[in-house]
Structure formats: C-alpha cells, structure tokens
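Lecture 7, part B: from sequences to assemblies.

Below are the input chains for today's worked example.
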Amino acid sequence: MKKLYFSNILAFLFFAATSVFAQEEHHADSTAEHATEAVTSHSEAGEAHEEGKLDLGHLIMHHIGDDHKWEFAHGVSVYLPCIVKTEKGIEVFSSSNLEDEHGNPVEYNGLKLEHGKIHAVDGSHVLDFSITKNVASMLLSAVLLIVIFLSVAGSYKKRGLQSPKGFQSLIEPIIIFIRDEVVKNNIGEKHYRRFLPYLLTLFFFIWFNNILGLLPGGANVTGNIAVTLVLAVITFFVTNLNGKSTYWGHIFAMPGVPKWLLVILTPVEILGMFIKPISLMIRLFANITAGHIIMLSFLGLIFILKVWAVVPVVTLFSVFMNIIELLVAFLQAFIFTMLASSYIGSAVEEGHH
Amino acid sequence: MELLTPDLGLIVWQLVVFGILFFVLAKFAWKPIVSSLHEREQSIDDALEMAAKTRQEMAELKAGNEKLIAEARAERDALIKRAKEASDALIADAKAEAQKVATEEMDKARAAFSQERANAVAALKADAANLSLEIAEKILRNQLADRSAQEKLVSDLLSDAKLN
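Predicted structure of the full complex, as structure tokens:
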C-alpha cells in the first residue's frame, strides 16, 4: 500500500517535471504501436512469419528493465541467483528454476515469475533481494572501479611526487577536473575536501555504469529509478546533515524578505529541499532510459520495416546515437555531481550578508 | 509504470554496493590520490616560488655587484684624478723651483760677469795706461828735445786720456 502511494507520487512528479521524457516514452509507445501495426499489416498481406510478430514496445521495456537472468544475446543468458525472503524464511536458488527450456515461467517452491517479478503462488508477501541483472552489473562496475582506482592509487604511492604515468595520467585530469571545476567551485576552498571522496565516488560510479549500460547486452543500471533514488537520497542526507545556520536561515526565514511573504516563501523553500534530490533522481533516470529507448527503437526499425535498404541508415543513426550517448554518459555523471556539489555548497556556505 | 516503481531489492543492493564502494574508494583510493595530488601541487608551487625567489636574489646580487663595480670605478677615477693633481702640483713646484734656481744662477752669473768685466776693464785700463806710458815715454824720449814740444804733448795726452 505504502509502495503504491510512493509510486503514485513518483508518477506525478515524473510527468510534471520531465515532459521531455514523457515525450520520449510516448515516442516509444507509438513506435511500439507502429510495430504492432506494421507486423499486423505484414501478416495480413499473406506472408506468415511467426517470428516476425514482435511487440517492440514490450521488447524495449524488457531490455531497459531489470531481470533475474542476464541475456547477452538471444538465447545466450546467464541465470543469476535469486535471494527471496518468504514467510518460510530466506531462500536462495538459481533463476533457471523459474523458467522452462522455452523461457516460459514455471512454479518453483511455491514461487513464480510474473512480469519479471517473483511472486508467491499462494499470494503471500515476498521480499526479493535477488542478484538481478542490474545488481550484477552494478557489482561488476564496483569491482572495476575498485580495481582501477586502487591501481591508480598504488601508482601515486609508488611514484610519490613524480609526474603521472600510464593509466594514472588518463585518470588524473578527470579527478582534477572534478575536484577543481566541480567540487571546489561549488563548495568552496574551506569545506570541499570533506565532500570530495563522496562526490568523486558518485561521479565515477554514475559514469562507469552509464558506459557499461551502453555496451551490447549491458544493463540499464543508471536508468533504473531505484538506483537514482538511492543516489539522490544519499545526496539529500549529505546536504541536509551538513546544513549550516545560513542554509536553514534561508529556508525558514529568508533574510531581507517581508514577514508576510515568508508564509508563501517558507513552504516553497521546504518543498525545494525535496525537489532538488527528486530532480536529480529523475534527470539521470530519464536521460539514460531515454537514450536506451532511442537506440533500441532505431534498431527495432529494421525488424519492423523488414527492408534491407534501411539497414545502412539505421546503422548510421545507431552509431551516431551511440556517440551521443557516450557524451551523455559523461555529461549526466558530470551534471549529477555538479548539482550535488552545488546543493552541498549551498548547505555549508557561511553567511556573507 | 513498472519503470517508475523502485524495487526494494535493488534499493537495498544499491545502498550496500555504493556504501562499500564509497568506503573502499575513500580509504584506499581517494585518500592517497587526493593527498598525493595536493602534495605534488604543493611541491610544484614551492619549487616555483623558490625559483622566483632565487631569481630575485640573483638580480639583487647582480645589482649589488654592479654597484660595487661602479663604486670601485669611481674610487679608481678619484684616485687617478688625485694622483694627477698631485703630480701636476709636483711638476709645477719643480718647475717654479727650477725657474727660481735658474734665475738666481743667472743673476749670480750676471753679477759675477759684471764684476769680471769691471775687473778686466780696470786691468785693461791699467795695462793701457802702462803701455801708453811706456809708448809715451819712448816717444817722449825721442821727441822731447825741446821744451815746448814736450808741454804740448803732455797736454794733448791728457786731453785724450780723459776720453777713456
């Protein structure tokens, strides 16, 4: 019940705040409709292609969503472990138990997949802590980040004050860019060092996951609302737990504003406290998901139109979009970090009136 | 709408993974990296500052050297000037002295010469007188046979002798 309520709020904010993404989704929906139409008209023409009956909208939604198995290509899947807390206790089993050889969901231990989610057959409450595709991808990115940055840190320790070399020189400008242009600029000389580890982790986590998501067969981690929700909530707590008197003063009693106006202004400011992280959450989720949907839609064109001539055009567009998405991958990580720093910066700012 | 419903499982996993990632990276990556970067930047700044300072010191040293050289040169010029003045004075003195001595010598010589001349004239006068006397005596011995002639001659001689 509570979850439903929350998702309603999210849905409202979603449509209110990002009309861009709303269009995007609409676009995807219409593409799906087109797909259905196209396929229907095709089969009506008399050519019976059973495998041609594809529901592109469903396919795309399936691709950008989470799953209990990791499908790298059609038929090439890795079954991931399921960790489920039922009334009977915690159960751990492979997700391969949940479907038969044709990929149809089957019952296992009283549990069954419904729209990719594990439900109890008897309708009792189930908590799903499975290593899903997104969790696995996230773990992979975490391992990658730890390996890369520990080795870079190692070369810093080894080389001392010498100039950077090798992989270190690739990473160093990015770290310096984030430190100087993003963190120091927004938080200020006095406090920035305290928040630098969090913001660097944030930036590289988002960036790496964005890029991993662009790989063929990659998961849509940063385009998942749960992931961006957690990042936004952490940022919210980091911001507000470090709020100085100036920050709270600006929220509850904006200086230099007539008393009667505060009646309007204070609720707006309080709302702003929450809107900031929510905008962070939606921006990243929407941008990355939209990118995935566009790419899949382009590729889907081939299967909808079923004309060879369209292949070069689609390839060209896909490559173009991929390059744009590579830029977006960096840009969204940068923007998230930038805004998080500016929120933290406004919280720790000293009064200067 | 499924897209907008955050899964509890994923939220928990994201918190766990991100939390572990943050602590591992903060402790083992960001701390050494950020402090090394800071140290390196500090050392570069220090080195640059040191270089600037050294350059300034060098410039000061050079200026000092130039000043010293200029002072030495001025001193040398003064010394030479003074020496020249001294030597000029010395020469002038010597010249004056020599002039004085020469003048004195000339005067002395001139005085001696006048004396000598006077003496010579006197001697010459005496000799001439003696000679004239002798000549006169001889002539007289021959001519002064009579008295009138003798007297006339004497008076002539006397008047002639006064011309000297």
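Note for the exam: Chain B touches chain A through 35 residues (CB under 8 Å). Keep this in mind when comparing with the next example.
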